[in-house]
Amino acid sequence: MNSTGADADESPGAFSLGSAPGALPRRFEAFQREWETRLGAVFRLPSLSPDTIGDFRVKARGARVRDVVIVDVHGASAARGNAILGDVEDQFRMQVVRRGAWTVGDPRARDEQTVPAGQFLLRHVGRPSHFESAPHTTAKLLFLPAANLTPLLGNRSITGSVDSPELRLLVAHTNTVHATMADLGPAGVHAAYSALIELAKAVARGRFDDVEPRLAPSLVQAAKDLVDSHLTHPELSPPMLARELNVSARTLHRAFATVGESVMAYIRHRRLEEARLALTAPSGRLSVSELAAHWQFADSSHFTRAFKKQYGQTPTEYARSIRPTGS
Fold first, then answer.
1. Could you tell me which residues come within 8 angstroms of residue 88 by beta carbon, excluding any fewer than 6 positions away?
2. Fewest Cβ atoms closer than 10 Å to its Cβ: which of 159, 202, 283, 294?
3. Cβ-contact 195, 214 below 8 angstroms
C-alpha cells in the first residue's frame, strides 16, 4: 500500500483492498477502514446491507488521483448498499462490468439501471442512490468530478460496450495509473489526472481527441493490449489496430513515436517473444516452420532471420541451448 510522496494529500496513490483473513465481520471492518482512509475524502463507502457484511468476500485495488477515484473490484459474494443519507452526491460514476452484473439507481424513483457483463454505464449521480452486484462480479468503478462532464452530458447516461475504442483507451490509462502512481511526482500526477478527465470526456462524446498529446500513452497501451490479444491473427497490422481504436493510422504511428517504437516493431517483438517461449515447452514442441506459420511470419527463413536478430541465435540453436544436458 504505497502513496505518492508528491501531492500526497490529494493523491494517496494506488493500493490493494481485500477481505482479510479472519471472521467475516472483521473482513468487512478492515476493508471499510482502508476504504475510508484512502478514498473516503472523494467517495465514502456506501452503507452495506447486513447480509452483505455477513458474507463479505471482496477483493479490490484502488487509486485516488486528486478528486478522481478508480477501483477495480471482484466480489465472490453478492453486495448491496445504499448511499449515506445526507451526503452530497454530485459526481459522475462509471461501472465497467467484465463479469456478473451491477445495478445502480433508486428503484423508488424508477431510476434503476443494470449493467450486464460486457457493458459500461456512465451517469450523473445527484442524490443518494443504491447499488447491487451479483455474486462473482468483476468491475471497474470510476468516480469523476461533475464539473468536467456536466457540460457534455447534463443528466444523460451513456451506455455501451466495454470494447468501444474510447473505453479501451480509458481502461488502459487507469491500469497505467495503478502501475505507476506510487512513483509519480507532481507533474506526473497532473498529467495522469488530466488524461483521466480527457478520456472520460472522450467516452462521453463517443470519440477520441487525437490531437491531445497527453493521451498518446493511453492510446499506445490500448493498442498494445489489442496486439497481445490478437497475436496469431493474420490481419494484425497498424490499419487494423487503428480501425479497432477509432483513430487514424497516422495518429497511431504518432503515438508510438512518443515512446520510441513503431507499431510493427512491437507486433514483431511480441510474436518472437511468444515463439521463443514455445521453444521452451517441455513437450509437443512445434517445428520451426510450424512456429513461423503460427506466429504469422511469411516463411521459416524470414522467421529464422528475425529470431536471430532479436536473440542472437537461430530458433534451432536456441532450442538446443536450453535442452537439458544428456537429453
1. none
2. 283
3. yes
